[in-house]
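Q: Structure tokens for this one, please.
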Amino acid sequence: MSISTDPTVSRREDLPWPDEPPETKPEPAPSTDAGESSAGFPIGRLRRADPIELWRASDFATWLGANLGEVGSLIGLRLTPAPSGRVSPGTIVATDPDGGQVRVVVELGSSTDETFGLLMRQLVASGAKTAVWVCAKAQDEHLASVTWLNREITGRLHVVVVEAVRIDDSVPAPVFRLALRAPAAPTPASSAPAPVPAGE
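A: Here is the predicted structure, written as tokens:
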């Protein structure tokens, strides 16, 4: 038995397979580099450092002497450099707007009894009425002592804490914050005689 084919039906041609989607590569994982953010642009990381490991007190005092506004703005005084004469290393001599002498003592570590004594001796010897103690960490006992002195003497003693920061591996920069500000100087009482009540 033979099988005949219809000559009017053309031979079927195989249709091509549908195009496969192009190969896709997995998306890269977010970078863990400190300078690259997930948003795709650089953002640095703020790092803290120990000031005593970065600077010497005498060198830092030289820099601070040329940038007295860093501490002056914290204590509310406009400070200008003054001739230092013979002073201990790490000490800055400045003047306030009234021409009064201001002593700034720099200690890049924790506050110590030695520096506290130095500050007191300088105030007595110079006659300065204002002093600023700049240190990396203010000990509680020294803050208490300065608070007591501000109540008992006519001088004004301030304590400013300095920290060091850098962005990634940038040049370190100091950051100052006020740890203790002396109370405002009392307004001197008028020397004019009190008015006599009428009738006396």
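A few notes: DSSP finds five helices and seven strands in the chain. The chain has a mean pLDDT of 80.
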